[in-house]
Amino acid sequence: MAEVLDMDALIDDENTRVIVCCGSGGVGKTTTAAALALRAAERGRQTVVLTIDPARRLAQALGLRELGNHPRQVSVEGFEPKGELWAMMLDMRRTFDDMVRVHAGPERAEQLLANPFYQTISTSFSGTQEYMAMEKLGQLAATGDWDLIIVDTPPSRSALDFLDAPTRLSTALDGRMIRLLTGPAKAGSWGLRKVVGAGFSMFAKAVSTIIGGQLLTDASAFMQAFDTMFGGFRERARKTAELLRSQGTAFVVVAAPEPDALREASYFVERLSEEAMPLAGLVANRTHPVLAELSAPKALAAADSLERAAKPAPLAVAVLRLHADRVALAERERRLLARFTKAHPGVPVVGVPALPSDVHDLDGLRDIGDRLAGG
Fold first, then answer.
1. I need a surface site. Which of 105, 148, 161, 264 has the fewest CB within 10 A?
2. CA angle 30, 31, 36 (to 5 degrees)
C-alpha cells in the first residue's frame, strides 16, 4: 500500500515556495495546478499559478475573461480567500521579447526584435516554450510578491523537457554551426576562412544555397546583437535550475490511471530521482472508485435473475450492469496503480475521482481541490 500524498500539508508548509505539476499531455495538469492554487489561496497563501495551456476554459473557471503574460488577481464576487490568488498564461513570444528588452539594452533590443532570424527562433526553435516557462518562473520568484508559485508545465511527450530546455536552447544558440555561420560578421571574412580553410568560397556558396543568403545575413546580425546578453541568458537558466532543485520546490506528477500515462509517470519519477529533484508524489487523476460494496459477478447474477423474473425491472437491471462495469474498471485501475507503486514504493499517491462534468467555475476547481486533499 502506497503512502497517501498529504496535499494540504504540502501547500500549508511555508517552506514550500514552488510546486511544479508535470506529466504527459491530456492528464489534467492544468486543472490540477489551478485547483491547488485556489486551495492554497483559500488556506492563506499568497499564490500565483502559471499555466501553459492556451485554452480559455481556465480563465473562465477563475472568473477572468482571459489570462495574459503577466499575473492578474482573481477577484470575483463571493470569492474572499484568506490569502490571494493570481493567475497568468505564458505567452512565449512576449516573454522572449521582454527578456531581450530588459537584458540587451534599448539599441540592441530593437535590433534583435526586428531581426527576422530572431522572429523565427522566438516562436519555433526547439525548446523555446519550455525555456520561456523557466524564464517566467525565475521572474516570478525574483519579485518576492508571492510565497507560493504553482507551475503547469508544457505538455510534452519527452519526459521533463521543461528541465532540459535551458541547456538545449543555449547549447544550440552557442553551437558550432551557428558560430560558423555567424563568423563573417563577428570576425570578418578572414575569421571564417581560418576555420574552413581554402574552401571558404565554396562553403559560403553552399550554405547560402541551402539556407538562403538573406537568412545567413540575418543569423549573423542576430548573433552579434545576442552575444552581449548570452552570458545572462545562461546565468538565469542556471539560477532557475537551482531553484527547481531546492528544498522549497516540490514536483507533483499527474497521471491518469491508464497504461501509457502511468508509464510516462514512471519515466518522470525516475528522471526526477536521477536529477535529485524534490518529488512530492503522484496524483492519480480521474479515477473511478466503486460506490457500493457489491462484486461484479454478484451484480451480474442479480441482473440476470431480475431479467428472468415474472415482472422484469429494466431500470434495476441497467443499474446493476452499470455497477458491474464500474467495478471492472475500478479493479483495472487498481491493478495499474499497484504496478506503479510496486515499482516506486517510496512515492506517495493521492487518487482524484473523475467529475461528472468539465470544470467551468471556481466551485468546480474547489471540488477538485477537496478531492486532491482526500476529501
1. 105
2. 100
